[in-house]
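Thread title: Can someone regenerate the structure for this chain?

I was given the following input by a collaborator and told the matching structure tokens would be attached. They weren't. Posting the sequence so someone can regenerate them.
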Amino acid sequence: MHAWPASEVPALPGQGRDLRIHDTATGGLVTLDPGPVARIYVCGITPYDATHMGHAATYNAFDLVQRVWLDTKRQVHYVQNVTDVDDPLLQRADRDGVDWVALAEKETTLFREDMTALRMLPPQHYIGAVEAIPGIVPLVERLRELGAAYELDGDVYFSVESDPHFGQVSNLDAAAMRLLSAERGGDPDRPGKKNPLDPMLWMAAREGEPSWDGGTLGRGRPGWHIECVAIALDHLGMGFDVQGGGSDLAFPHHEMGASHAQVLTGEFPMAKAYVHAGMVALHGEKMSKSKGNLVFVSGLRRDGVDPAAIRLTLLAHHYRSDWEWTDQVLRDAEDRLGRWRAAVSRPDGPGADALVDEIRAALADDLDAPAALAAVDRWAERQHREGGTDTGAPGLVSRAVDALLGVAL
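Best answer:
Regenerated them for you:
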């Protein structure tokens, strides 16, 4: 599966700062110090309704992580999956009377177009669950050999009690885990499971549903969590720098994935930091496909909204905060974009070296994009109020906003 084209990231004078970011597992800020190649895995879409603003906010956050790392002169090895076979996708295809493969391809194509428009840097490896199945099957078989998996009516489950570190990503108690498991794709009430929280690794073939050869597992399809584990281990290995996604993935998805990988490898932890973006709401409720309260990037683009304004709307909110999409937050972003473009269109202006340092410092401090935007606002206001004589300043500001914030002026 291919990703989307990369926009050029301008080079800036000097060098950025190491990233200090909130780690869900420890509950505090950690300073990331990757080697020459920083490694990041971000969980991708289930392609049956893409790309809403919750998606966009999540991928914007991890695009900023990449940009901070690139500014420190590191390379970035970024991997993202596509869950192109799963119950919600099959249910939507059945509801709409369309082929599930065609639906997945259509929505994945739209997602790529949206990511390109928003200038999100693409992953080096963009892997679908279906194409990952040949690598998933041996992992499930290995977990079974280790005594960490068991069969129930043909399905194969992972035993969470096989990982002594289980629970150390989300740090939730058993009652909270059980509740979230039921809400987020688990089946804690299924009779016969050793532990209600045990997640499915391999689902035996169901009549009328797609299935693949699973070797000793029989025909079926993979569970959600093992999919990402297989892709991450194959392309990044253990101990990569950041596991990212929305805050609703901390449990069960990232918790279960970490346990799968840790049992498989005997190493801990799977990732050095678990980083989660906040949720975006509309009309007082979290945007979700099940509720249908979605604002789509593609819809805004069709209405003529500049993708740079959409991106500025996302950047105006700290990545970990939950916030609400309104017409006003978009209007504010459009006004800001106009002011910035007018400011950099002049032939000279106030010196901008200090501004570049301010943006770098803000982003290195737990991706504080609102502080970075405020710094550019101050420079633009000074430009409009009193101007300046530095002929290189407008160009430097334009390149810095592009390189560090992903906004083309």
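The domain at 20-282 is CATH 3.40.50.620 (Rossmann fold).
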